[in-house]
Amino acid sequence: MYKLQGIAVSPGIVTGKAYLLDRKRVRHIEKPIKVESVEHETQRFLEAVENSKNQLISIKDKIAGSKSKKPIGHGHLYIIDIHLMFLEDKMLIDETINTIRKKEINAEWALRLVVKNIQKVFDNIEDEYFKERSSDIMHISERIMRNLVGKEEQSIIEIDEEIIIIAHDLSPADTAQMALNKVKGFLTDIGSKTSHTAIMARSLKIPAIVGLERITDVINGGDIIIIDGISGTVIINPNAATIKEYDQKKLNYDEYEKKLFVYKKLPAVTKDGRRIILSANIELIDEIPTTIEYGAEGIGLYRTEFLYMNRKNLPTEEEHFEVYKNLVDGISPYPITIRTLDLGGDKFISQIQLADEMNPAMGLRAIRFCLKEKQIFKTQLRAILRASHYGEIKVMFPMISGIPEIREAKGILEEVKTSLKHDKTPFDENIQVGIMVEIPSAVTIADLLAKEVGFFSIGTNDLIQYSLAIDRVNEHVAYLYEPLHPALLRTIKHIVDTAHNAGISVSMCGEMAGEQEYILVLLALGLDQLSMNSMSIPRVKKILRSSKYHDANEILNNCFKMSTTYEIEKYVRQEMHTMFPDDFS
């Protein structure tokens, strides 16, 4: 018996038999070709792409039509659609063809070179969710590669016994084919919390651990495995006492989950009457059923970047409108806050040619990009306004650093309103406008910005790294990414107090908002709304409904007396574990 530690991406405890699935990178030959073979090699590549499309379409059809197997992916076929979209991607397909022709090399070699370059692009992205989209490109390229070398892929949908899947990596198409009554969990060598596969595992409640590095090397088919999807622990060939121990842990966890269920539809209000709104962060429309199931009171952050990524053409106004209207229809009567485009550059939009930047995180992105590419901005705003006729929508501008930016953005919004009025197109003329507060300059002039907008939303992911001057994805300084840093607590307090003095509300939509240990600190800081991953909402509600605002204030006041992050973290952790032993066991 031995243990491995990985990244827990989907909670739950399960014991089962290992099933090894071959998803390792395909071995291939890299060779130069003669000029007369270039077109043949190009055609071979295009045939592999076409075969990949047909395979994904076939998987979709099998899932949609399957009744006896009950694959879990019925509600997640949209992710396979996203992979089909990647197979039309100019950066992947056209560049591979160009590389075959220019370098006169075989298709396999050209594909590897192009994918390597694409991954470098994604490595420069600060947002972890969008950084992880490189894994989608990798999954697609491996499917193409398998077709190039003629290697068949093991089918998951035919598995007919209860097992735990072990693989180097799993694509969303793999996850969508799993039969819920057969696949008890999965483990992979690589992966992260923000991969599409992890997102699906969480929404489908399959215990899963990724990033185990060598799990496929140390496990044999048929081994008995325990997955602890709460702590990220994997136990291989456990003894009888360990199995008994984890059977009890599973019973305790399942009982705790049942208790949480009663909180899903209850308001988040403390024992002494302090009310806070809990909403969800989402990227895709198909997440709305999960959002509603877990008791969200709206969508506090809808990221629109995926509409622009990995496509040959810019999204049309109608495409935007269709998505936003579907969101409104799905979440009403609750509100939805739509963040305008928060990316920039030809890395994501093939029609826009911009120079490479030394530091993309601080370059032409977000509102800066939109104010430069006004037509792209207006297209999105027109669609948002049109959708606002059908339900409550708020529009939010990211990366605002000063007054001129917000005034120019609002001016463009007014131009779009005038255009819609001229066209006699209905919209909410009183649509709320807010900004993301995520740059130190915005914090400093929060009193001036508060006079310009209807609400603030604190984006802690960027605010922390900009305030502390650290890159949270740089392994050498990632330890300095400290949400409870004394400077950050004072920063948040200043933002909230300034907003409230101006009569506007403040939400938080960064990862910090969904961390259970921070909830009472955030409550005491005076935030009106917290927006988080849907699955975190019942746990946060339980803590809030079991607490008093008075006690939270006492904890915060003690934090302000401490001078180091270490002291604050230790104190907050001890207090939370003492007050809520069942939630932090």
Task: Record keyword descriptors for this entry.
585 residues, eight-stranded mixed sheet, Enzyme I, Chain A, domain 2, single chain, eight-stranded parallel beta barrel, Glucose Oxidase, domain 1
Distance between the termini: 24 Å
How much helicity do the residues have? 40-55%
Instruction: Give the averaged pLDDT, no decimals.
Output: 85
Strand order of the largest sheet: 1-8-7-3-4-5-6-2
Structural class: alpha/beta
CATH class of the domain at 23-153: Mainly Alpha
The counted number of beta strands is: 16
Radius of gyration from the alpha-carbon trace, in angstroms: 25 Å
Low-confidence stretches: 67-75, 345-351, 353-360
Overall, the morphology is globular
The number of distinct helices, counting runs of at least 4 residues, comes to 23
CATH superfamily of the domain at 23-153: PtsI, HPr-binding domain
The CATH level-2 architecture of the domain at 23-153 is identified as Orthogonal Bundle
Kindly identify the CATH topology of the domain at 23-153: Enzyme I, Chain A, domain 2
Describe this structure as you would to a colleague.
The protein is α/β, with parallel strands linked by helices. Among the domains are: 118 residues, Glucose Oxidase, domain 1 (3-Layer(bba) Sandwich); 131 residues, Enzyme I, Chain A, domain 2 (Orthogonal Bundle), CATH 1.10.274. 46% of the residues lie in helices and 13% in strands. The strands form two sheets. An eight-stranded mixed sheet has the order 1-8-7-3-4-5-6-2. β5, α8 and β6 form a beta-alpha-beta unit. α4 packs antiparallel against α6.
